[in-house]
Fold these 2 entries.
Entry 1:
Amino acid sequence: MFICECGGVLLVIGVETPPKHLSKQEKLIYKRVCDVECQKCGKIKYSQPYDNGTILNEVKKTKPLL
Ligand SMILES: [Zn+2]
């Protein structure tokens, strides 16, 4: 779960889709990023690590969930 600096809960609003050329195994270890939105202050953070806890700075395209 993600927590905003305001203390609100960040909900995932979009998750990156792994590249189509990857094999099933490669997709399993592929580190996706996601966009999250704070439910308290409404701030949106892009390209947050989704599959592990490492910090990513690279901006990747995400696919909206809604
Ligand atoms: Zn917030």
Entry 2:
Amino acid sequence: MSDVGTGTGKVVVNRAMSLDGFIAGPGHAMDWIFTHLTSDTFPEVMAATGAMLIGRGTYEVGRRMAADQDDAYDGGAQFVLTHSPPDEPDPAVTFLTCDIEEAVATARRAAGGKNLEILGTDVAAQCLRRGLVDEILVYVLPVLLGDGVRLTPPGLGRIELEPFATTRSGAVTMLRFRVRKEPGSSGS
Ligand SMILES: NC(=O)c1ccc[n+]([C@@H]2O[C@H](COP(=O)([O-])OP(=O)(O)OC[C@H]3O[C@@H](n4cnc5c(N)ncnc54)[C@H](OP(=O)(O)O)[C@@H]3O)[C@@H](O)[C@H]2O)c1
């Protein structure tokens, strides 16, 4: 199945997760991710991605951990959502201060028909609440973190998912789910 349609790509919440359900360890630790996951682990995901919408929290964690990160990952244009853009903007990203739906529409246009990746707990939860997400893609990593940041925040509510792919590469298992959007199936 190709992810890259000829029209508008999908909106995909993309997460690395420990087996006990955390996407960051205590103190927002992310080092455990890069031990197992690089841009080479599932190259088809990067190839299908045309833009990324990133919460400011995630952006700041990423800046602090720059030395540990896989800088070969190229998901296209990067948009960072914030109420307070920095005085000296990073030329590699576009800072947005707007409603979540407008942010998704802007980043999606930049994706040029490829998928839009949503990175950030808060931003992803807002997208899920508004019914803006087509797919949740989780990389399950072989580690138990014990504590940290959960895959979704408390209070998101119930959202029905439809599994459609399970793929393993090395030590990482990628699980993919469509988000069901029928009335009554989304969180509130
Ligand atoms: N494992 C993984 O794959 C993975 C991936 C991504 C992130 N993470 C983890 O997730 C955590 C970060 O999550 P987070 O809770 O900080 O959420 P986030 O979604 O990264 O960032 C939240 C921030 O985004 C800005 N924002 C959100 N909605 C906005 C809107 N409508 N308008 C303007 N600004 C808006 C606000 O920043 P301002 O306060 O600047 O306004 C808000 O505080 C970190 O621990 C990170 O390590 C893990």
